[in-house]
Design a protein that fits this description.
single chain; alpha+beta; 5-stranded mixed sheet; 7 helices
Length: about 250
């Protein structure tokens, strides 16, 4: 996906999140985030949006801590969230292509990083908001889902902070049945190493476990927004549990 596509999709996802939150109400429970209500989701996501917008707008080249979440609620909280989301989108739209600012994963450019990161941050939390309504979720396109899986497996969990580890080396394959994308994830005592290949490439390699499903299903399950039962699992289930039990992104 290109930067302009990421920003346009981010704009749409934020609006969907706010609309779902408004329908659900601030006190509605968020089943995909145990212990959270819609008010907590809006405060968290709105804070992240403002943090990212400030880093980009000010060209901060070193890490800056995020601000505090507001004590707002109800209509005031929704207005605050929407204003912060609009500011993030406009900040990214107006940022120069050669933007220089801090990032926390390898990236073609800081602008590409923040456009992509905030799209997937907002998409996952939009799913959280819609889950509070208990109905159907707005679909995620296969292309965007593949991009998000790339970011998660090859970006987030390649960092030293990943807790996806195993004293016994294990190999997990993730296969999208509606695209050509297949990921091989090697889990060891070090951060996991993931490589994406085209469908069929490496299909004869020995793996301990394979998770397969639509790109959207894999995207949501790997972010722990859908259970493993939403996917087809072949092989050693304990390998998949290493992922689900340890993959929560906390920083």
């Amino acid at each position: 996906m290109q930067i302009a596509e990421h920003i346009a999709s981010l704009s749409g996802e934020g609006r969907l999140l706010a609309a779902a939150a408004e329908r659900a109400g601030p006190g509605a429970s968020v089943p995909t985030c145990p212990g959270w209500q819609i008010r907590h989701l809006l405060r968290h996501t709105g804070m992240v949006h403002r943090w990212a917008a400030a880093l980009v707008a000010e060209g901060r080249t070193t890490y800056q801590p995020a601000g505090t979440e507001p004590a707002l609620d109800g209509t005031e909280l929704l207005d605050w969230f929407r204003a912060g989301h609009r500011r993030l989108v406009s900040t990214l739209e107006e940022a120069p292509a050669d933007l220089d600012c801090w990032t926390f994963m390898p990236t073609p450019s800081p602008l590409a990083f923040w456009s992509r990161r905030q799209l997937h941050e907002t998409t996952v939390h939009r799913v959280d908001a819609e889950s509070a309504l208990g109905g159907a979720l707005t679909p995620v396109s296969a292309g965007r889902a593949v991009d998000g899986i790339d970011e998660l497996l090859i970006g987030f969990h390649a960092r030293p902070t990943s807790k996806v580890r195993s004293t016994k080396p294990r190999v997990l394959r993730v296969r999208a049945t509606d695209t050509d994308a297949t990921w091989t994830v090697r889990i060891s005592q070090d951060p996991p190493r993931a490589v994406r290949s085209e469908a069929g490439a490496g299909a004869d390699d020995d793996v301990d476990c394979e998770l397969s499903g639509t790109a959207e299903g894999l995207y949501l399950a790997l972010w722990n927004r859908l259970p493993l039962t939403a996917l087809t699992l072949r092989g050693d289930r304990s390998v998949a549990r290493i992922w689900t039990d340890n993959s929560a992104v906390t920083g």
